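Issue 218. Parser rejects a valid record. Input:
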Amino acid sequence: MKKLKILLSIFFISINFSQDLYKPNNLSGRLVTMTPKLDWEAPLLYEQNQWLINWDGSVWPEGGIGNSGGFPASYFQRLPHTQLSDHVGKDLEMISFNPRGAADFQALVFEVAPGEEPDLINNTNLVLTGPILDSTEYSIGNWNYVQLYDHASSNSTDSFDFSGDTVPSTYQISDNQKELWFGFRITNYPDGVFPMGVDDGPPIDSLGNMVGLCWDVDNGGSWNPADFDTCWVHTLMENSTGALPFNWATGLYVSDEHIDGMHYNIYENGTSIAEVEPAFYGMEFDLEEINLGPREFGAYEYYVTAVYDTFESEPSNTVIIDIFNSPPSDFSLLSPQDSSEIMVTASEVINELSFVWMPSNDADGQSVSYNLEICLDNSTSPFCIDTTIVNNSFQIQYNEFIVLMSIENGLNDISWSVSASDSIETVPSLNGAFSFQLIFDFLDILDEKVPSKFTISEAYPNPFNPVTNIDFSLPKDSMVDLIIYDILGRKIKYLVKSYQRAGYNSVQWNATNDLGEPVSAGLYFYTIKADNFTQTKKMLLMK
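Output the parser choked on:
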């Protein structure tokens, strides 16, 4: 009886260990801009799968390699048996490449006896192929993956036509002491294009940088693949006299377990909500991951399973993500300082008045906008304006501020405050509203004087929604056209089309056209024409 209990214990331990091989591992979750993001490790079943490479693992970003004149060439890495012996019994599934230019790529794998070379004309030692891929079938500058197929035979009229190879690779690495040469035959690219990706060296000579060039000797040196009768296999260093110390950016994937047919199920609060294809075979793979998109506030429980042809694995560990909004961080007003006085002379009227506050940050990664409110607190005519901006400062010329706020000569009591919003919660500045006095002693004179030149201001606020202000000054009475155009140059609205007296003027645009209809968000231009003065500026309407 005791022996039976021991055998049962061993049997159950074996089942549990087997299940552990198949399930995803180390699930973790976090919030990214209010969106749950999950990542996890692939099942242990696949941990012996790997890429065999003879290069430094870093793609050279400056370009690639191509044959002179755009002529066909084959680029290989060579794996001697010493590099294959640890992988005996493993399958060859796919090949990778990182192209740097447009061409036709065809994957080839040769099984070669030591000291021999791939038969690039008759393909007698060719064992695996991939389909010919043109530039619409891969991504330049990124890693691409090609499934390999058992090589059956070549087309009778075209030795480079392997369309008959339709059986997915059944090749297993054996202990037959032979080498594997893997890479790509590249054709159909113009002179000056360098399609084959490389690393940044140094060369792993005779392993990572093999080149195969074929041509026709009997018919005058033809580069037509159908006429080839001679091939030369050498290293890139031999071909370039040392000027190209690179290895090919390609890899050969060997596996204990095939990936085909497996996917992940994502569970949220016990319900399957998404399927994810595996990515762990990627050359630059870190973790499997999914961004689940926005969710309502609340607590969410997640786990992941791996789904195989005939069963679904046990779930990974469970993570709980509590989605709630963190308001924008505390911030303070800086300047103009509270209880300060600002005296502005006539010569300073074109200087800028700056409102500045500390930036507020959002722990959830959401963008923060600010609402700035400025008030004229004079007892005779108190009123406020406000604007929403994304920066932590606002500038306006004094002459524009005078018009905007109906500033009077003498002492003007101004207060200002700022609140920060992440579109969900709004927080005021820590130090509340600031007040300051703005003092002018020349406005009575200015009212009688006229500007010295034509000017038009930047629209403020800018960007805006839905109202913005535009100031302009006229040194003499003039016929004024102030016109809004869209980005295509079409007239949208006449803001001003009348005879104007000399002086300082201001006009608002409420984002409508001449028919009173709202216009769409986008970039707009406004042009003033007065006397011989013409100037155009731009503004951005946001909705």
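Fixed in the parser; the record now loads. Residues 1-17 have pLDDT under 50 and may be disordered.
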